[in-house]
Write a structure and sequence with these properties.
The longest helix has 7 residues, at 49-55. Helix content is 8%, strand content 37%. The strands form 2 sheets. Strands 1, 2, 3, 4 and 9 form a 5-stranded antiparallel sheet that branches. Strands 5-8-7-6 form a 4-stranded antiparallel sheet, with no helix packed on it. By secondary structure, the chain is mostly beta strands. The two termini are 28 Å apart. The protein folds into 2 domains: 14-74 and 133-156, Chitinase A, domain 3, CATH 3.10.50; 79-127, Thrombin, subunit H (Beta Barrel). The protein is elongated, with a radius of gyration of 20 Å. A hairpin with a 5-residue loop joins strand 6 (101-105) and strand 7.
Length: 166
């Protein structure tokens, strides 16, 4: 902690503001350049585990590059998470093309995300793995701000924006 009581490095229960670029297989997948930095409470599991571990101890203004294994990112690809669904179960307004992402609800009412792998005459193959499952993640990050999380943020488990209503 600094003399003002503000954290000086990334540690649990600190709100971290992070500029980042995520590259997979040499292609930029996501970056904060357009939408601005992300904010999260360190140690609360809001970012992938490998990234959370890699930034512990970083200080404001510090930049770092690192690679995270698939297991510490979005997990290994699970072959059991691929399903063939009869084409007749899809409403006609859904474009049945490879790469289309879908939000589905299972029988228990839970929301699932999937993307179409392939389409043939009678069957649509869906992949329920995260699109980055099985991929090594390359991050370039810069810590742009650190502050202590408020008791309300810790209680609610997320960062409150200025003017946030409970």
């Amino acid at each position: 902690m600094s003399e003002t009581g503000q954290p000086t490095s990334v540690e649990d229960d600190v709100v971290v503001t992070l500029d980042y670029t995520l590259t997979v297989d040499g292609e930029i997948i996501d970056t904060s350049e357009e939408d601005g930095p992300i904010q999260f409470i360190q140690g609360s599991g809001h970012i992938v585990a490998g990234l959370e571990r890699a930034i512990y101890g970083m200080q404001m203004g510090e930049s770092k590059e690192f690679t995270i294994s698939a297991a510490d990112g979005y997990g290994e690809e699970d072959p059991e998470a691929i399903a063939d669904i009869p084409r007749s179960e899809f409403p006609p307004e859904i474009p049945l093309e490879p790469g289309v992402e879908l939000q589905l609800t299972d029988k228990e009412g839970d929301e699932l995300e999937a993307y179409i792998v392939s389409v043939d005459k009678g069957v649509v193959r869906l992949n329920f793995n995260h699109p980055l499952a099985g991929k090594e993640l390359h991050f370039s990050v810069e810590v742009t701000d650190l502050r202590s999380a408020t008791p309300e943020e810790l209680d609610h488990g997320h960062v409150h924006e200025a003017g946030h209503e409970h």
